[in-house]
Amino acid sequence: MKQEERYSIVTTALTTENAPDQARPDKTDKRQAIIEAARTLFTTEGYETSTIADVARKAGVGVGTVYLYFKNKAELLYAVKGDWEKEFLSYMVTPEIQATPHQQRAYPLIKACFGLCARHTEMVQMMGLQPQEVGDWHDHPAGSVAQAIKAFFDEAAALGIFRPVDTGPAAIIAYGMVEGALKQCFLVEGGKDQERYINTLVDALEHWLVQPTLLTS
Question: What pLDDT score was predicted for residue 100?
């Protein structure tokens, strides 16, 4: 399998979420304006106090237009989260990462996650929302990022670099480990000791997934 084919699932995730609207820039622009308005309101006014009407007014569209794209506020919050995920997915397919041996990718990828949180303080605020505040948002699967992680795990396992694990659950578990560490580091500890969390995650993932003969430490 060619290198570009191995990562087709990642690039597809970056482009297909809004594929039906791509031929209609006005629709795409409206949807993005709604997401950006929601991000601003959720992080300045608060998620609970912001209404769909507030988001519509901020985005310069009608309330009905918001409901054309999002069935409720929780789904809108998930779209806000999706913007951050796209940034990480873009990093996963950079030449720098693809040129890095599979067994050595944990550190740069996890460091990128922490860097994303450090750059986007609003992301950290969203991570702190409780399930009772956001309804079914927490019922969504990890989505595109977990699919991309699974594709990476599948490739590494096929090459004999990773141990033969069930890559579907493994991707979800890895995603949850990183998300839990991000919450603890940024929400509880204010972003202190990031490198400590990064190194611990890398150590755990490498010793879990990488073939023992390929471990460097």
Answer: 95
- 175, 149 contact by CB (below 8 A): yes
Residue 214 burial by Cβ neighbours in a 10 Å radius (0-12, 13-18, 19+): middle
Instruction: Please state, in angstroms and rounded to a whole number, the distance separating the CA atoms of residues 169 and 155.
Output: 15
Contact 86, 15 (CB under 8 A): no
pLDDT at residue 18, as a whole number:
44
**pTM (global) more than 0.85:** no
Q: 46: left (phi > 0), else alpha (psi -120 to 50), else beta?
A: left
Q: How far is CA 100 from the centre of its chain?
A: 21
| Distance (Å, whole) CA 190 – CA 169 | 30
Alpha helices in 60-214 (DSSP H): 63-69, 73-92, 95-98, 106-119, 121-127, 131-134, 144-158, 167-182, 194-209
Alpha-carbon separation of residue 173 from 24, 80, 178, 205 (angstroms): 37, 23, 9, 10
Q: How far apart are CA 128 and CA 190, in angstroms?
A: 12
Per-residue confidence band for 166, with pLDDT thresholds at 50, 70 and 90: very high
CB atoms within 10 A of CB 21: 16
CA 169/CA 133 separation, integer angstroms: 27
CB 209 within 8 A of CB 153: yes
